[in-house]
Amino acid sequence: MAATATAPGAPTSRLGKAATEFDDRLIVAGPVRRTLNKVFPDHWSFLLGEIALYAFIIALLSGTYLTFFFDASMTEVPYEGEYDPLRGTEMSAAYASALDLSFDVRGGLFMRQMHHWAALLFVAAIVVHLLRIFFTGAFRRPRESNWLIGVVMLVLSLLMGVTGYTLPDDLLSGTGLRIISAILLSIPVIGTWAHFAIFNGDFVGTEIIGRFYIAHVLIFPAILLGLIAVHLLILVKQKHTQFPGPGRTEHNVVGNRLFPTFAGKATGLLLVCFGVVSALAGLVQINPIWLWGPYNPAQVSAASQPDWYIGFLDGSTRIFPAWDINLPGDYTIPALFWPTVVVAGAMFTVLALYPMIERKVTGDTASHHLLQRPRDVPVRTSLGVMALTFYFWLMLAGGNDVIADKFDISLNAMTWIGRIGVIVLPPIAYTLTYRICLGLQQHDREVLEHGIETGVIRRLPHGEFIEVHQPLGPVDEHGHGQLAYGGAPVPKRMNHVGGARRAIRGFFTPIESPAAVELEQQRDGRELAAGETTRELTGSGRPSDGGRPSDGGRPQDARD
Amino acid sequence: MSTHDTRPGSAGGADTPGPLHGGPDEDYTPEQLAAMSREDLDMLGARYDGVEILHVDPGPEPGSRMEKRAVRQVGWTFAGAGIAALLFLVVYAGSGWFLPEWNWATEGTTWSAMFNPLLGLFMGLAFTLAGVGLVLYTKKLLPHETAVQDKHDGSHFDRVTTGATLVGGLHNSGLQRRKLLTRSLGFMGAAFGLMLIAPLGGMIKNPNKGNPLGRTNWAEGVRLLRDNGTPIRPGDQQPGSLETVFPAVPGGNLQSDAATMLIRLRPEQLAADRPKEGQEEFGYGDYVAYSKICTHAGCPVSLYEQETSRILCPCHQSQFDVTQGAKPVFGPATRSLPQLPITVDDEGYFVARSDYIEAVGPTYWNRERI
After folding, report:
1. CB-CB neighbors (< 8 A) of A9 in chain B
2. Among candidates A323, A179, A333, which has minimal Cα distance to B314?
3. How far is CA A104 from each of CA A99, A127, A291, B104, B206, rounded to the nearest angstrom?
4. B198, B191 Cβ separation under 8 angstroms
5. Percent of chain B surpassing pLDDT 70
6. Is B300 on the interface with A (CB under 8 A)?
7. Would you call A297 and B335 a contact, using CB atoms and an 8 Å cutoff?
8. Is residue B66 less than 8 Å (CB to CB) from chain A?
9. What's residue A527's pLDDT?
10. 3-class secondary structure, B315
11. How do residues A344-400 score in pLDDT, each as one tens digit?
């Protein structure tokens, strides 16, 4: 074979040669090019899932650091660390090592707080990401599998939270553990068996911290990592959804290539996430375990609350009526069973099955890659807002003692407000959202038909005053627009269609000459006017080749 | 493409690619590719990946005022990130060396109080500035392109050919015909599944054996001790007050179910006292003792409002009326707090007359049966 040095196109630079050597062995040039060329749509809401991923990475890194010092043992030891008020107190080795992490390890408190904040951000980002997916219909075929994986990851993240919250073995986490134990016991028939299997006997035993520890640092993260990998692989395989707009169809993705634009922005977001979590970790105290003291089954502090994502279960437990169900044969279904196991189970089951339910109800089995605006699917949007109202109302009820204390309201009144509100508010939220969606839909169509309100009032020769409307496209003999709604935002102000000169760049002082901008705009304006006769103003962003999103469940209004 | 092609021991096969080798390499010779510009090669590769670059908005003109300004911004942001990272290092490593000690639990100086916030501030600044710099770089200095990538539906060709391969394999295995094999495989699979989960049986413990959920360390003659281990005599407590007591056994004050509230009723409370049926004699004089473990979710019911005789559980706000046999009067709890029968021993100290006569703590499904 001829020497490659003379072959045409052979690399001459050192880097090029190294790359060739590399590719000779691994044959990666093709896949790498495909990856670099992959197009990602550009919309801020597509970054929410990324935030969850980055928060998970932070939690993984900081958590690994914590394991170097944490001792997941329930052996009672006298505390001999730096923190004076607790010195000499008998406590579990787990709590003592968590205190040592906070007081004796340089930067340990910083890492502990970073871990906690990252965990909170992780769940929050998952929830917001899920809402984006839900309200835009991104879960529809072919993405049901990723929706299911996402819901499973949400549940796993809650389990991660619960097990992690328990580990320090302070008074607050022990109180939480006691309630977990009671919830397990409340399950009919298998409850006591499950409790004895998990706790290795009656509450609290000596095993539970060690078992939760291995679940928290190995079992759950391993499953989560696997699911994240599958989630992302499916995402890459199916390609991203996008909002309807000019040139966007069911069969393409419009946006930026991975390299360099998307990679730059995504890495920037990763760094900002790290930055925000580190700043929180240092500047905002979270879970000061040394103030709670060691766990003691006979002690509790008022306003004991779980982390935010479990708050809804605490709330449902607080407002659920005292309804034990006594069955013949002296069997009981404890009241605690309903607001915890059943409510959480039902919520996550409905959530997981929602894509299938919607498909069944609407009969929409087509593949969808264009997203829907929430207003265009009022039933789904209203259902979502109703569920959110339910969820946040329960979460609020989880802090009813704090609200009662701070606002000087009777505690019992707060409980009743919670009970009534959880029944009354969701339907109200549904109705309101439905009306708002219809109103927004109608306004979109009105603008498409009659044009944008210009605010210019004109007097006609016979004395009538009219407001001049700027049509978005060609009009018929009645002055009605001919544009169909395409599922994309409709411009509603003159500025959206270039009614005003663009702003001059520069923050404090202009960095470009205003006169030049004026000229540029005039030039553009002339071009616009010249092309006006042939040009159809598709500000509505109608997809060019019939890529119109389905009406999935939207009542068709009979407009002419 | 090695430059040295003598291969001892591998003379068997010809060193020529097979007939199916090729792809785009057949369409474009190295000479053709060498003649193309870098931009054209980029576009060509993109087209092979189904990507079309619709529009490129070049970054700011080199040497323009806009570019200089953007470069200055990005440069200073990255430099700021570096400075913040160094400051983090200075705070982290310098404390206790050329800076005051960091340990705020022992020292309690202003610096030690600032140690953790400063770590967060500088690391947060470092990361955030680095991220902001990168985003500014992408937005202000890189060309903005709009690209379109085709999305392919599943290929019919792929389905048919893959199906043929899979069905061929199944056909060759003969599993559809050889029923014995299918059945034995199914049997083996089920048995393997059971075998693999069987070791988890080590976790199973019988919750009904010996009634561990229904018993505590209280028993006849066991003294009521305070948390500090001292016994209690009638008269030690003010009327209307509450004291948490534990059984006088080793580790009694850490038992999860044994914590008990010893309450001395005020005269008017005593007059209004309506104990549970059959438990009228469980108290001693104006003293009554109830389990401290909530019958709802097991939290210690700790907040005693003696004006209303109510005990509140701070976890879920169940309220129990002490003068009605600790019956739940509000909130999610359904059962009264179990009452501990008490009396006084020869030396005049409080002792239990027996264990609780029912299970303390949260309800479970067969509680009434054992």
Report:
1. 30-31, 33-34
2. A179
3. 8, 36, 16, 10, 43
4. no
5. 95
6. yes
7. no
8. yes
9. 66
10. coil
11. 999 999 999 999 999 999 999 999 999 999 999 999 999 999 999 999 999 999 999
Bridge partners of B288?
Answer: B263
Find, among A203, A171, A164, A161, the residue nearest to A184 by Cα: A203
Torsion of CA B57, B59, B61, B67, to 10 degrees: 150
Q: What is the pLDDT of residue B7?
A: 58
Contact A69, A95 (CB under 8 A): no
- Which of A201-205, A528-532, B173-177, B254-258 is least confident? A528-532
Q: Quick one: tokens of B223? A: 């003294």
pLDDT the model gives residue B10: 58
Q: Residue A310: which of A170, A123, A182, A48 has the closest Cα?
A: A123
Query: Can you tell me the distance from the alpha carbon of A40 to that of A252, in angstroms, rounded to the nearest whole number?
Result: 11
Helical H runs in B137-209?
156-173, 179-197
DSSP code at position A339: I
What's the pLDDT band for A495 if we cut at 50, 70, 90? confident
Nearest C-alpha of chain A: how many angstroms from B21?
14
Chain B hits for A413, CB-CB cut-off 8 Å, are: none
Question: In the structure encoding, which two tokens stand for residue B248, read together?
Answer: 């006088």
The C-alpha atoms of residue A16 and residue A373 are separated, in whole angstroms, by 47
Residue numbers in A near B261 (CB within 8 A): none
ipTM for the assembly: 0.92
Q: Is the pLDDT score of B369 beyond 70?
A: yes
Distance from CA of B192 to the nearest CA of A (A): 22
Helix (H, G, I), strand (E, B) or coil at A256: strand
Instruction: Enumerate residues 541 to 560 of chain A having a beta carbon within 8 A of any beta carbon in chain B.
Output: none
Q: Which residues pair with B55 in a beta bridge?
A: B146
Contact residues on chain A for B47, CB-CB shorter than 8 A: none
The answer to which of A43-57, A182-196, A305-319, A477-491 has the lowest mean pLDDT is A477-491
Residue whose structure tokens are 């279960």: A313
Q: What pLDDT shows up at residue B9?
A: 62
Q: Which residues pair with B95 in a beta bridge?
A: B99
Q: Alpha helix (H) ranges present in B218-364?
A: 267-272
In this prediction, what percent of chain B has a pLDDT beyond 90?
Answer: 66
Bridge-based pairing of strands B224-225 and B144-150 is unpaired
For chain B, report the end-to-end CA distance as a whole number of angstroms.
81
Contact by Cβ (8 Å): B33, B41: yes
pLDDT of the residue at A253: 93
Chain A residues near residue B243 by CB distance under 8 angstroms: none
pLDDT band at A520 (very low <50, low <70, confident <90, very high): confident
| Interface mutation vs chain B, best among A38, A241, A336, A370, most B CBs within 10 Å | A336
Q: How far is CA B340 from CA B33, B290, B291, in A?
A: 92, 6, 7
